[in-house]
Design a protein that fits this description.
Elements: E1 5-7, H1 9-18, E2 23-26, H2 30-36, E3 38-39, E4 47-50, E5 54-55, E6 58-59, H3 63-69, E7 78-81, H4 87-97, E8 103-106, E9 132-133
Parallel strand pairs: 1-8, 2-4, 2-7, 7-8
Antiparallel strand pairs: 3-9, 5-6
Pfam families: Rhodanese
Keywords: Transferase
Protein name: Rhodanese-related sulfurtransferase
């Protein structure tokens, strides 16, 4: 079963900000949240949840349980975000297969693509100037 589709960071933010039933799910690792920062939902009507797709030791075997505990339901729109927009595809597919959502992926992720120097300055949620909070 295919997830509902891809959104740019601005489209994702607009969706989260305009609909309180939307859950933005950051599926990066706890270390990424702590060291890099997180999307900030304070300016948006929707919620932000933090559910690891992979943990420091490997795949999160409790992903769907953790997602449900964060407020995901079959009726609630889910928007998945990771570092660059790759892990979040897997998360959106898993949620869709489990009957949750509709589930969307955020293209470019939180940090975006690497520039010619290997730094993540090209695109993504943070580089688009969307609300963020410092490391948690």
């Amino acid at each position: 079963m295919t997830y509902a589709g891809d959104l740019t960071p601005h489209q994702a933010y607009e969706l989260v900000a305009s609909r309180p039933d939307v859950l933005l799910v950051d599926v990066r690792t706890r270390g990424e949240w702590q060291q890099i920062g997180v999307p900030d939902g304070a300016d948006a009507a929707g919620d932000v949840a933090f559910v690891e797709w992979n943990t420091a030791t490997g795949p999160n075997d409790r992903f769907l349980d953790d997602l449900a505990a964060a407020g995901a339901t079959p009726e609630r729109t889910l928007v998945f975000l990771c570092r660059s927009g790759v892990r979040s595809i897997g998360a959106a597919e898993a949620a869709t297969a489990a009957g949750l959502g509709p589930a969307y992926n955020v293209l470019e992720g939180f940090e975006g693509e690497q520039d010619r120097f290997g730094m993540r300055t090209v695109n993504g949620w943070r580089n688009a100037g969307l609300p963020t909070s410092g490391p948690t």
